[in-house]
Design a protein that fits this description.
Largest sheet: none
Oligomer: single chain
Shape: globular
Structural class: mainly alpha
Radius of gyration: 14 Å
Helix content: 25-40%
Strand content: under 5%
Distance between the termini: 23 Å
């Protein structure tokens, strides 16, 4: 985990992403996808820390349509950035996978409701193994 990357404006865990070599996270403006990212542009133009501060959340931005992303945004809204980073770091130490090799999905995906995503974050639910 690269905690310094933090969380994306959209609620994705830049801190756990290794997809883009050299990317320092969207908060540093280095994400190669930033030109096409509605949450990035929106948060920048409205001076928001992220979607969790937006009254219009969830909007129709494609990245915000996943349950994982919506659950992470809700978690940040309720508990704050440091708490989710702590929970993601603990989860990684416990073997929870953010991205399976070669995929953009992991153990936080394929869950049926926000409460179960939060339970996985909190350690009270174990990931489903395929």
């Amino acid at each position: 985990m690269n905690r310094e990357k933090g969380m994306g404006f959209c609620g994705l865990a830049c801190c756990l992403c290794e997809e883009k070599e050299g990317c320092l996270g969207c908060r540093e403006g280095t994400c190669p996808e930033k030109e096409q990212c509605r949450p990035y542009e929106c948060a920048q133009s409205r001076a928001l820390e992220g979607c969790w501060q937006c009254e219009e959340f969830p909007c129709q931005a494609p990245v915000l349509q996943s349950l994982r992303t919506q659950a992470f945004v809700g978690y940040i809204s309720k508990f704050g950035m440091e708490k989710i980073l702590d929970r993601l770091e603990e989860g990684e130490k416990d073997g929870i996978v953010y991205h399976h090799p070669g995929l953009l999905t992991g153990d936080y995906d394929g869950i049926e409701n926000e409460e179960d995503v939060w339970a996985l974050l909190e350690g009270s639910k174990k990931p489903q193994k395929a």
